[in-house]
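Objective 1b: paired records.
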Amino acid sequence: MVNKYKVDMVAISEPMVNKNKVEGYKRYLGFNQCLVNSNGQIWCFWRNNCTVDNIQIHDQLVTFKFQQNGSNHDYYVTIVYAKCTAAKRMDLWHNLEDLDNSITSPWLGSDHRPMLLKCFNDNSVGIKYFKFLDFWIDQDDFKTLVAKEWQVEVDGNPMWRLQQKLKNLGRRLSKWSIEEIGDVNENADEWEAKMEFLEEMDLIDNSKTSREELNKGHAEYVYWLNKQESILKQKSHIRWFEEGERNTKYFHAVIIERRRKLEISRIMNNKGNWISGEDKIANKPVRYFEKLFNLRESNVDPQILDCIPECITDDNNNYMMSCSEEEEIKDVVFNMSTDSAAGPDRYSRIFYYCCWDIITREVVEFVQFFFIKGKLTKFFSTLFWFLSLK
């Protein structure tokens, strides 16, 4: 349940485990905080993205106030481990009555019954754009999925067909990644916590079984770390001429610094004065280009171009304007750096290398259509394919 629903808080009644092991289970489950009642029959775990205030800790119940960070709403939760006889449960009922008289916010409780609670509004959904992740090509079923999706026929000219096939494939890959792979960063953090727990268990048990579990856990941890490293490499846009030691802090720093450099905090106007503030910065370039592109038409004598010597012959021009053949297009694609940033279609160069045998026809027809018509849709950029074709 913890992994499937990514819960922020879990309470366990009668865990049937010595309470001294609660810290190990906290790390194993991937939580940051925990508490145990006096007789060890109620365990509670929660993450740092929520606030938990203890209201009452008793041998038959634990009550706390729960609030997610960024939320203004409080929730009271009571976890019950009741005694077996009515006489021994009298203290429990008195405590519950006192709580009922004092709590005015939403309050819920459970006695052994499994319960899953969602206590936030998920109506706001931001736009999340597709981006091809390079580690996808290492998945066993990746090329099978691409080939199957690529076989779906799309009507229209070659430019439209490639555009729609890339869009359809992007939606399918995003869904496949969520369902089959999951959140890489969360899985890496989860296995890091599990490794700490397995290492502790191996030190305690020191058996063949514990060592096997530790080795299996280590392999799984490295598996997710490699995926996480691939994403960080891709985001940092660093060219890796040599594979070095893993250093995720370095890549995070590079990403943050790159974003900082791209941020515009102020601009200078034509009078030499600095302008700050998002609205003023956004409006200034708009007014500038509106003025620039609305100038009066000027009369230019076309003979002024006669003084420029002709450097391009008709043969050169005809060659530049001719359609490229498949091998020429393939050479350009395969000579592009795998470390360069993705194009406007959000696919990295590795995708085209890996899937060239699947997508060849659509890409070649797209390029040839461009040379015939000389136009591109907004989905594509001229820089994407054509700078080095000739």
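Objective 1b, second protein:
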Amino acid sequence: MLTGAIPSKVAYSPAVVDDLATPTDVLEVDAPRCGQDCYGSNSCMSFAYDAAKGQCMKYGGNYFGNFQNHSGKRYPMDIPLYTRPMYFFNLSHALDRGYRMDREAGLCYKVTNGNASHDEAETVCSNDQARLLAIQTTTQLNAILDYINSTNAESNFPLHVAGSGPEMTYFNTKPIPDTLFSVNGTIAPGNCTQLTSTGLSNGLCLDTLSFVCAY
């Protein structure tokens, strides 16, 4: 079991196994050693530790956002480790790459200035083992808008974020809530989701814009 304070560069939450991918490695070690191994590895972005089984499951990507609002209910962040497997996200890698963590909104993201199409932006994000930001709630939408406005970067609008296809879905799977769209552009196969100063909108996937990556 972990002892002492959780480092400030670690985001953690109760793990839901179904929301995690196949681990890159599974070790039979205690929790401190699990964290040390992940923290010291450039290939370990996150890990889950199951105290009941004494198993350390290491991952090359981040699944923190998958269960932040699992079943519509946000898990408390201070649940004791022994009550269920815990999932830890190695924030040090993300922070070193210029990402910022907004714990209230459940986001770890980076606004990238540049000219890229939707596909090109997704490729840049994947190089960080991240993806384009999938804005799923009004809380997340307001948080990212507030941040951009606070940095006087309004000139970056619009920006590429996750969402594409004739029905505007996240990575072609889950529909994006209509309430997040402030402007309803023409819905077409060649359109992708863009973040404007007032909310989401539909724009051309081939537009060369700045974009937002997220873990």
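Residues 138-150 form the longest helix (13 residues). Residues 1-11, 67-83 have pLDDT under 50 and may be disordered.
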